[in-house]
Predict the 3D structure of the following.
Amino acid sequence: MAIPLDEVVVKEEKQNLEYVSVIREPLVTGGKTVHDVTEDICRQVEGKPTLSWMLAMAMSLGTLGIGAYCVFMLLWEGIGVWGLNKTVGWAWDITNFVWWVGIGHAGTLISAILLLFRQKWRMSINRAAEAMTIFAVICAAMFPGLHMGRIWMAFWVLPLPNTFGSLWVNFNSPLLWDVFAISTYFTVSLVFWYIGLIPDFASIRDRAKNKISQAVYGALSFGWDGAAKTWMRYESVALILAGLATPLVLSVHTIVSFDFATSVIPGWHTTIFPPYFVAGAIFSGFAMVLTLMIITRKTFKLEDYITIGHIELMNIVIIITGSIVGIAYITEFFIAWYSGVEAEQYAFLNRMTGPYWWAYWTMMTCNVISPQLFWFRKIRTNIAATFILSIVVNIGMWFERFVIIVTSLHRDYLPSSWAMFYPTIYDVGVYVFTFGLFGTAFLLFTKFFPVINMAEVKSIIKTSSRKAS
Amino acid sequence: MSDKRKQYWKGVEQLTNDPAFVKNAESEFPEFLPISDNPEGGSSRRDFLKMMGFGIAAASLAACEAPIKKAIPYVNKPIDVDPGIPNYYASTYVQGGDYSSIVVRTREGRPIKIDGNALSPLTKGCSNAQVEAAVLSLYDNERLRNPKKSGQDISWVDLDREVTSKLNKIASAGREIRIVSNTVLSPSTQKVLEVFQDRYPTTKHVVYDTASVEGMRLANERSFGQKILPTYDFSKADVIVGFGADFLGTWIAPIQYANQYTQTRKITDTKKGMSRHYQFEGNLSLTGANADYRTPVKPSDEAKAVVALYQALDGKKSDIPHVNKAASDLKKAAGKSLVVSGSNDPNLQVVVNAINNKLGNYGNTIDLTTPVNYRQGNEKEYNEFLTEVKSGKIGAVIFFNCNPVYNTQSGADLAKALETVSLTVSTSDRPDETTKFVEYVAPDNHFLESWGDANPAQGHYSLSQPTITNIFDTRQAQASFMAWAGVIQFDYFEYLKSEWESTLAGIGLIWDQALHDGVFAIPENLEAPIFNADVNAAISSINTAYKGSDLELSIYQKVGIGDGTQSNNPWLQEMPDPITKATWDNYVTVSQAWANQKGITFIEGKSNMVNLTVNGIALKAPVVIQPGQAPGSIGLSVGYGRTSAGKVADGRGVNAYPLISKINGMESYAVISGVSVEVLEETYQVAQTQTQQTYMGRETVIQETILSEYQKNPGAGRYHPHISTWQEESGDTHPGALTLWKGHKYKNHHWGLAIDLNTCIGCSACHVACQAENNIPVVGREEVINRRDMHWLRIDRYYSSAPDDELDDDQKDMMDSRKLELVAANPEVTFQPMMCQHCNNAPCETVCPVAATTHSSEGLNQMTYNRCVGTRYCANNCPYKVRRFNWFKYHDNSKFENVNIAMNSDLGKMVLNPDVTVRSRGVMEKCSMCVQRIQDGKLKAKKANRPLKDGDIEVACASSCPTEGMVFGDMNDPNSKISKLLKINDTEEADYIVTKEIGEPRAYHVLEEIGVKPNVTYLTKIRNKDKA
């Protein structure tokens, strides 16, 4: 619907040059001033840790400890402590890997792609989303290492010059592509995130009241001086990095999907995987951002910055990507039937009706049906419903990877080798380890780093903090 | 060159020829390097640190050297032992009447592998799983290390003194002495026992067999007047009918029969016919699995089927399925047929003899003129012995390498009665159930440490020779008998040699040649007797004896464990049963119908336990639902339920020997009355290596046809996957024609393996041979349940899916893919040996991130263990699922010491093949196509300066195959056996691509449609049936 120009009422209040739109919902509510932003965001960095933070940290460290024991047992005894077998060589390990990598997509997507598309609503969530990306990628990177039979030889997957003669990595292997894709993605995401943090570190440095904070934040802020020229360079770098990161958002999960797509296993050997994986990754990443944001805004009282509007917009992304994923599932089935390949047809029937039918239907319910609830505005603007559904989506996405990996492997070509996979406590434990790691890292981030990009949010305070009544 | 040479000085001192400089000019360091920094002499703190630094560095460098464990150089190197070069010795495997002529490969004085001896006219170079595995029993830590008295160590001198004095006392008191043994095939041992008997005249030698066939010998006595077992020749039979005789697996001489049988089954361009095989049996046996027409009948009906067949030959129709058809086929093939029965009932065997006589098979497929000496047990004498022991008449019992407390029906009675016997001796080489109840154990050598001989059949002689010196303080049992008979300083070798020379030298024996060959054969034929038996009396006796009941039990031997003598051998324990694919246990096999009735399911090996009660003896055992099990019958194998065999076998399964019943006074493995089964709540999981039973109708995996179709079209039954491309939509493109890969050209050799599904009987000899050759770890029951068996070569066993008319209403509504999982009540069975297919476009090779698995220039898919980081991507991407991952450290790991005995003790490790790496934790492994043998063969040819000949290299599986169903060779050599078999044509497509076209219409690649182009080729399975 086109809006006639004369209906757009622009009130200019002379004293503070504020810009009020009658159509757009404000991105920051509560009539915040620039100073309020600094105060609100710096509060938890500068203050003492809250009780809820301490409790959460204790839980995370506990989880990390239990997980670390399982990791230790895995390394001490061997991969046999997991439930894998001669038929199913990957299960929870690579499921968790793909799941975490998928989650790690949202941050960069939000900060890079939305930056390029000039979506200003990203400003209050991109910092935390990027932090989530970094930690999720770290968690993801645990698994390719831990799943190796001889992790102490893991450096052999890097193309390092060596004294063994002509030993070199195999550039045909998708696992090697993974190594490159993930390390590149991690590096670019980390740099992008860090560059964004510099002005905020400088703000904290400038406000710091004790020597340690001054020194630490001083070092972290790289001597930021806030000069116009510095700001100009900062903007350019952000733009360049956004440009670099954008293709990576698409490439990482594309390459992860090649692990499966280039194989010969029915259910894996599928050309649809790259777009399907990328959509799925954004889907799960946004769901994870929502889960974390809803908790963060509540505990740190940031409701004015992360508004219902933000949540609604993210929910819309979830409907879109969830629907793409749903279409991909259906397409897979159609192609399996249409291909006339017996093993392929069986693989897909087996997903639906075989011994792991429950995993398949969990995936379908969580990923295809549940996001459709967001068509209802009441639901997509309801915090509790969003929170529950965001978790449901990530359960569904975990099962998607489980279904792809385990149900394809457990019954492939030769019926003689068909087998079941049953997880052990160590399968669960190593997954739990990454939760502990993620939780601990994220909590440290929320305590010591500004969770919202103050500098960017301040830039919209004048333009998008009020709605004309 | 210029006269004016440039001069360089070390310094101005040299130019001036300073005397101080000249003095030190020649030394390496012109100035003394002070250790001490302290100008006043003595050590400073800095010196102390220097010294300490050097000391620590030197000490840690010294510690970097790998420790050398127990390497003792030869002082005088034995002439015929070269490190790294194997020696081969012909010998003989004898185990309670089972016989095989073998060749033992030794390395640095250690026997490491047993192969069949091709020079033997009986076993013809064939072996089976039990023979292949016997080498591991030599290195079993459970073997006795020295003689024992009441469990305590005793010296041989003391033992001999005590035993001799007791024997003398018993003999002089006129009390009875008994030597109990299984069948003794050795003529010289029998002479030794005679010497003993001469010394102690009250001695009697009692012989029993764990699976008695005395009923056959009695039937032959009634039919022909001679209590003998004839030689069967299955290779001459066009129609074979078996009644409960598992002649390919466990019946009498399975190695020989399997070889003969498959000669009739093999199809070539020149021999387009094959035998037809009918089998009537209760349990699905290995033999039944290979039959063209198998009729599941419970044991009592099996007896009736024999009678029905006899009467059907006279035209009386029977309503037992396939009896009439078998009769008409038999009549057509008179004189070229063979009927055998596994029953121990003389009446039944008389009828079988009558059938064979009526068909004129005597003199053709059955040879009474060269009887065999296997299974000479005498049940009557054994039962008398038992009564005498119980009554206290016996003064001394010597158990000569037998274990009757375990492996006879009345073992418990014997154990109790032994307490009253004043002298009890066993010569067992390991503690067993019987040695627990004897006072003295005089451990015999293992047969690989012993001299010995055997006379398996009339005119056939066989020698054993030691391949290693005694590992422990054991003594050959023959020497023990002689010692107790008062012959001291007895040399069994000299005795044996002189016995042979005195009896056989006159008829052409050359001792050295016989020792080299391991066998010596002369035609020694008896006169052919005439059939004369009262068949009608036998039939009427059968009709009264086999009343039958609702539930009957067929006791059987498993192909791997057999009678349980070798049950402490983990290779055999973990060898999946060819039919059930179960390991480490025995179990009650029941039919699906019975399970439905009782509400039992069998999923992933899990089912209810049952209480099996047979004539008052109750056993608690797990259940396996067995397709093909005759309704109203159940099965249970012997060989399990050991209590003192060692840590591998103890406590596994239940002992079925006490359940053996009697029919017509003879021991019977078939129990036709008094059987009841109660289903318990308790569940148990049987460790199976394969749980999916059918091949899901996937023609790309199993390709089969029937004989008449094959004769019309040799390519019948082949499945040709075709695809359409954008260029031509007809769907005629061969999937292999489309490829991203540039292909290969193998300049020298191109190794390949061809497997004939028609001759593979599933016996699993290759399975154990592969395990022995390639140092494959044993993982134990729990890890098999976790589906982590390590076998490089497995035998996939597929049943046919249930036809529509066998489905109930619920099943009819199922999806097609689910229906295919249901097994037919009496399925057709196909065995498919599956190992690394050495794909030319190997999916595993592309996905390894570190290039640990690569393609060789000779077509092999190679695995570099040292490079492997263990991502398992290769195993996931293997369409054949033949890659095996080292989930744990299987060697030197206390968690596996009870099962993987070959890698967890110094003794066990002696069996390891030094040519093959023991893999570490976390790496992938798989069939290497015995690359160590390939390299060895090439090296030998190179050293002899000649090209490699076909047959120079034999892989372990192919060389152990008793049916010659596997052919290994160089596909680049147009004259090799494999090239001729597969009719290989090379097409040079480019100077770097050579495509091998296989001309044999029966040949196919498994999963051809995915285009991985394996180097292992299968030949279609052909059944001799009228209809598919």
About this structure: Chain B touches chain A through 61 residues (CB under 8 Å). DSSP finds 31 helices and 44 strands in chain B. The longest strand of chain B covers residues 675-685. Residues 117 and 993 of chain B are 41 Å apart (CA to CA).
